[in-house]
Design goal:
Blueprint lengths: L8 E6 L15 E2 L2 E2 H11 L3 E8 L4 H10 L5 E6 L4 H10 L6 E6 L7 H14 L1 E7 L4 E5 L2 E6 L5 E10 H13 L7 H6 L6 E4 L10 H10 L1
Parallel strand pairs: 1-4, 1-6, 4-5, 7-11
Antiparallel strand pairs: 2-3, 6-10, 7-10, 8-9
């Protein structure tokens, strides 16, 4: 167990997804000779900003995750913890393994194209409001649908597709999760929970190449980009 210090920067790598659309645990699929999640773990490990990070893993794969981290000589792991049935619960369990004070970068393990510059920009941006996320303006025309029927067209001028990593003051993120738990709410990203507290996260223009592995086709595109 690494010594924890308050007021510093940490990482939380969410690797507990079941990969239902992919058809397998996509975070463990080989990508250029390494499991997908190891690419993000190595960026956290090599960052001079991050002093340690937690990995959230599927309940039956804890031993495998620890073995893979050791095999790739990842040094800054604070703990590997068991994920929940939903992403919100998994992040909450990861937060329990981090110190009371400081800052955290929450990242989905299925996005292997993260880099150290993104970590630097994100931690800097979240200092003002306590929360920040990468994203990019929506360029496609967006339609609201009901079944197969188009209901109306959404104005895309103020729409942003958000990504991870997302950055937070640890105390703020814990309060947001506690509030959501009391209300029995979950969310697909952590900024949504912080917004419920009246906080307006900052969004940072992020690279469109920061793709998420969702289908086997995504793996081919990401491999080509890498």
């Amino acid at each position: 167990m690494r010594q924890l210090s308050p007021g510093l920067r940490y990482g939380l790598l969410v690797a507990a997804g079941r990969g239902m659309r992919f058809g397998a645990y996509k975070q463990f699929v080989p990508l250029l000779g390494r499991p997908v999640f190891i690419h993000s773990a190595q960026v956290f490990d090599n960052s001079r900003l991050i002093v340690g990070f937690v990995v959230v893993a599927p309940p039956r794969r804890i031993h495998d995750v620890r073995r893979m981290l050791a095999a790739h000589r990842i040094r800054k792991v604070i703990s590997v913890v068991t994920g929940g049935t939903e992403r919100t619960e998994s992040v909450c369990r990861g937060l329990d393994a981090l110190p009371e004070n400081g800052w955290v970068a929450v990242h989905d393990a299925a996005r292997p194209l993260i880099n150290s510059k993104m970590l630097a920009h994100g931690f800097l941006a979240c200092r003002s409001s306590g929360a920040a996320t990468f994203g990019f303006p929506v360029s496609d025309t967006i339609k609201l649908v009901r079944g197969r029927q188009i209901v109306r067209t959404i104005d895309r001028e103020r729409l942003v597709a958000v990504q991870t990593p997302q950055f937070f003051n640890l105390d703020l993120l814990r309060r947001a999760h506690a509030s959501a738990r009391r209300a029995r709410l979950s969310a697909t990203d952590d900024c949504a929970l912080v917004e419920r507290l009246g906080i307006k996260p900052v969004w940072i223009p992020g690279p469109r190449t920061n793709l998420k592995v969702t289908t086997p086709e995504d793996m081919r595109v990401i491999q080509a980009l890498m």
